Structure formats: structure tokens, C-alpha cells
Amino acid sequence: MKYCEDLMLYASDELSGERKAGFEKHLDGCPSCRAELAFIRRTDEALAAPAAPVTVVEELFAKTTRRKSFFAGWKPALAGTALLGVGIFVVLAGLHPDKTVLDAKEVIAYMSENLDEEYLAFADDLDAFEQEF
Fold first, then answer.
1. Tell me: the pLDDT tens digits for 47-57?
2. pTM of the predicted model as reported, rounded to 2 decimal places
3. Of 35, 10, 13, which is closest to residue 23 (Cα–Cα)?
4. With b meaning 16 or more CB within 10 Å and e meaning fewer, what string describes 6-42?
5. What is the H or E stretch that residue 112 is in?
6. DSSP state of 98
7. Cα separation of 76 and 94, whole Å?
8. Region of poorest pLDDT, from 72-76, 79-83, 100-104, 113-117
């Protein structure tokens, strides 16, 4: 019975030395352990995934690998050109300042002239909103 406990270790090839030799000697005289070991080996074979044929693997690999794009070599050049374009735009924008920028005094004057009208329009809109809901 001592060797029967080593069946799973033997089946998974985890026994070595004297224990392995002792179990193999035990197998010669124990039909129960031989039958169980045969069952374990058949189960392992049935559960093992079959290997795919080499042609199938190569065909699948050929379909899934990417080929080098035409633009792959041009990426640094295109990036450099885009960067140059942005640089030129920034320089040209700096040479022609925006003429629509208002002076602070003009903004304050506009706000003081139109503040009352905008406040009243907002108050009317708020009243209409409150009546709606």
C-alpha cells in the first residue's frame, strides 16, 4: 500500500531514484496500480491538444504578420515636414499681429454702456424660464 500512494507522483514523473525504482517493481505485482496508471495515461493523451500541421501554422503566420508599409520609411520625413510647417506658421503669425484684439479701456467702455441692457435681457430670460418650469 505504501507504493500505491506514489501512483500520481509516478504518473506525473515526479519520482526519482529509489522511490521510482521501488514503484516500478511494485507495478509488476499490482494490477490495480497498472490499471489506474493506464487510465491516467489515456486521459492525459485524450486531453493533450493536437499539434497543428506545419503548413497550417505557416499559412496562419503569413496571414497575420504585417508587411512593411510603403509609408514606414517616410514617417520621419513627413513628421519633419509637418514640424517645419508649424514652425513657419508660428513665425508668420508673429509677424502679423491680430488686429481684432481690443484694448482694455475699450472693453470697459463697452461693458459700461451695454451692461444695463444685457442685465435686463437676462432678467427677462430668467423670468420666462422660471414661468416655464
1. 877 777 888 87
2. 0.38
3. 10
4. bbeebbeeebeeeeeeebeebeeebeebeeebeeeee
5. helix 104-132
6. -
7. 27
8. 100-104
Give which of 26, 31, 33 is closest to 7, Cα–Cα: 33
Residue in the structure block whose three cell numbers are 508673429: 94
Which H or E run includes 90? helix 75-95
Cell reading at 7: 501512483
H/E/C letters for each residue in 34-62?
Answer: HHHHHHHHHHHHHHCCCCCCHHHHHHHHH
| DSSP element (H, E) containing 105 | helix 104-132
C-alpha cell at 3: 507504493
H/E element holding 120? helix 104-132
- The enclosing H or E element of 72 equals none
